[in-house]
Amino acid sequence: MKTVPTSVRTLFDKGLSAHLGLTLVAGEEGLSNMIENPHPQKLGLALAGHLEGVLENRIQILGFSELGYLGTLTSDQAARALEAVLQRPVAALVVSGGQAPPSFVVRNGLKRWFLTK
């Protein structure tokens, strides 16, 4: 089945955000980013520096494991790890499980593409 790329904004304009339980936390400028692959991807190894596995224009998930790993790092190390991911063309970051985005996100100006579920 062929998929049609859509913007992150579509999730909000079409009312899908309520159905999916998504809230925009930061990064309105990222609403125009295109989602070209409908399958979300967990960041896992990418946060440890293995960025080759980050597929372009996908929604990236920060789940309990990813946030737990970031919690083992200093704020500066965690911010650098996440910023390295954000240098890639990701569609959006979703913090899953009702968790709050890491506090360093706002402190370090990483206010892009954050949604929570």
Topology, pairings included?
Elements: E1 6-7, H1 8-13, H2 16-20, E2 23-26, E3 34-35, E4 41-42, E5 59-62, H3 64-71, H4 75-86, E6 92-95, H5 104-107, E7 114-116
Parallel strand pairs: 4-5, 5-6, 6-7
Antiparallel strand pairs: 1-3, 2-7
Q: What this model shows, in words?
A:
The chain is an alpha/beta fold and 117 residues long. 30% of the residues lie in helices and 18% in strands. It contains five helices and seven strands; from the N terminus they run βααββββααβαβ. It has helices at 8-13, 16-20, 64-71, 75-86, 104-107, and strands spanning 6-7, 23-26, 34-35, 41-42, 59-62, 92-95, 114-116. It has a five-stranded mixed β-sheet with strand order 2-7-6-5-4. A two-stranded antiparallel ribbon has the order 1-3. The longest helix is centred in the last third of the chain and has 12 residues, at 75-86.
Can you give me a brief rundown of this structure?
This protein has 117 residues and is α/β, with parallel strands linked by helices. The chain has helices spanning 8-13, 16-20, 64-71, 75-86, 104-107; strands at residues 6-7, 23-26, 34-35, 41-42, 59-62, 92-95, 114-116.
Q: List the uncertain runs.
A: 108-113
Rg value = 13 Å
Tell me the strand percentage band.
Answer: 15-25%
Mass-distribution shape: globular
Helix content: 25-40%
> Please, how many helices?
5
Described by strand count, sense and barrel closure, the largest sheet is:
5 strands, mixed
| End-to-end CA span | 27 Å
Q: How many strands appear in the DSSP assignment? A: 7
Average predicted local confidence, pLDDT: 81
Q: What letter string, H or E per element, gives the SSE order?
A: EHHEEEEHHEHE
Which structural category fits the helices and strands? alpha/beta
| Sheet with most strands: strand arrangement | 2-7-6-5-4
